[in-house]
Amino acid sequence: MTRPILARIEPAAFRHNYLLARQQAGGARAWAVVKANAYGHGLLSCAEAVRDCVDGFALLEIGEAMRLRAAGFTQPIVLLEGFFAEDDLRLAAANAISSAIHCEEQLRLLELAELEAPLDVFIKLNTGMNRLGFVPERLPEVLARLRASGKTGQISVMTHFACADGTGIDEQLARFNAVAEPTGLPRSVANSAALLRYPHATYDWVRPGIMLYGGSPMPDMQSAADLGLRPVMTLASRIIGVQNLRSGDCVGYGASFTADRPMRVGTVACGYADGYPRHAPTGTPILVNGQRTRTLGRVSMDMLACDLTGLDAGLGSSVTLWGEGMPADEVATAAGTVSYELFCALAQRVPVVEG
Ligand SMILES: *Cc1c(COP(=O)(O)O)cnc(C)c1O
């Protein structure tokens, strides 16, 4: 028998979430953001699920973009951080892969490159996130240089919001539109949170990521279920040990949990080496044999403990760490993180199955 942990990926749920995002986008086209191996879900499983309906894909590495082209995807693909070297740039142009362009170095590479075909570019403006992008005042100059280079096809303008899931986008959007709107070029600004909260700013291309995987981009305001999203990844395992504790007995490394009464404790085959957050404290929700309970003590490398007291469960019982029946957002919140990180941290050693 193999170790019972498993990540089940539900392509139909990914498709459902994508169609919901696209509906929310109104007339805008929607890139499925599939960076980081589709947020840990598997690039090709997710891409296949939307093959016949997706407007395009957004990701980071030219190699991942080429995997999509090799699998027969002919839709637009955009590199969200742009190209890192001239080779990437030539490969992108030759394979109709569009690219963000966010700094002087990329602009120079493009001006000097010899390309097989014109490159579609998205000029990325820094409107307040202060991560990537040209200062907005440079847009006219950057645009003029791109046009003069003769290397570009369609030119669009994009930016990224720092607080779409919180205090809002007004200031950044105003800074963006002050320079982008007069150009009349296509615009792209919205991630999942902005798409769901600010339908007036969907423009030409939206960039939903986390919502496609069934995570809420603002779990403190609206749950994924409230938003109509379905979980795509279910991390499942089983109880592989049961211990009966007396009052005063402790659980796990550091003996950080002490029973205050007789308890039954289950040991789950899942630990931080599987991608479960080590910082999840006692009380993090977990589903055992369909019943909601809590984790106990410290998460180990390969195992964690949960409370089986009073539950209909025992050795071999099924466990859902997150996914169907146990929202990843709840686990993430308990562990002081976001569902993005849980999904992306899924470890290589966990077998992934579809359906
Ligand atoms: C990751 C990313 C997105 C998607 O963000 P979500 O919050 O997952 O919807 C959109 N745009 C850019 C530039 C990104 O890097």
How would you summarize this macromolecular structure in one to three sentences?
The protein has 355 residues and is of the alpha/beta class. The protein has two domains: 11-213, TIM Barrel, CATH 3.20.20; 233-354, Lyase, Ornithine Decarboxylase, Chain A, domain 1. The chain has eleven helices and 18 strands.
Description:
The chain has two domains: 11-213, TIM Barrel, CATH 3.20.20.10; 233-354, Lyase, Ornithine Decarboxylase, Chain A, domain 1 (Beta Barrel), CATH 2.40.37. Helix content is 26%, strand content 23%. It contains eleven helices and 18 strands. Strand 3, helix 4 (62-70) and strand 4 form a beta-alpha-beta unit. The longest helix is centred in the N-terminal third of the chain and has 14 residues, at 11-24. 46% of the residues are buried. Bound molecules: pyridoxal-5'-phosphate. Pyridoxal-5'-phosphate binds at residues 33, 35, 80, 160, 191-193, 207-210, 217.
Notable characteristics:
2 domains; Lyase, Ornithine Decarboxylase, Chain A, domain 1; six-stranded antiparallel beta barrel; TIM Barrel; eight-stranded parallel sheet; alpha/beta; 355 residues; elongated; binds pyridoxal-5'-phosphate; 18 strands
